[in-house]
Amino acid sequence: TRVCVEQMIQERLLKMEQFKQSVKLSKRDAEEVTAAVVEDCSDLVNSARKSLGHFLDVIVQKQKAAEEQAEGFIKELEGEISTLMKKRSELMQLSQIEDHFHLLQNTPTMTVTAKDWNKVRSSL
Which of 1, 42, 96, 108 has the most CB atoms in a 10 Å sphere around its CB? Predict the structure, then answer.
């Protein structure tokens, strides 16, 4: 029986070593997987940051383009308004003229060409 007990102790010591080795290997595998996952996630985060930066740049560029377009439209409208106000003033002066012949001579120059702003949409 002493030999049996001794054998049981040896078997358990061996089993204990197997568990320790298994834990050691499992820990090493977990560390390797963790390192790989951290690296992959870091790459993913860096890629996402790069993409975000690109998308933000595109948004800023589109906004600037829309603002520049709107500023161009505003300047064009200001020019048309100025021209129309000038024509209005001329028409008011002509309406004061009692010489109908003079009035008829100057009327053809009163035509105003203007852009159809109903078709223009703001992209802001």
Answer: 42
- For residue 88 the two structure tokens come to 């209005």
- Residue 118 covered by a domain: no
Residue 114: what are its φ and ψ, rounded to 5°? -135, 150
Q: Whose structure tokens read 């409208």?
A: 77
Closest CA to 112 of 93, 91, 87: 87
- Whole-number Å distance between alpha carbons of 26 and 111: 90
pLDDT in tens, 52-86: 999 999 999 999 999 999 999 999 999 999 999 99
Domain count, the chain: 1
Instruction: Compute how many other C-beta atoms are within 10 angstroms of the C-beta atom of residue 106.
Output: 14
pTM exceeds 0.70: no
Q: What is the model's pLDDT at position 121?
A: 79
**In a 3-state reduction of DSSP, which class is residue 123?**
coil
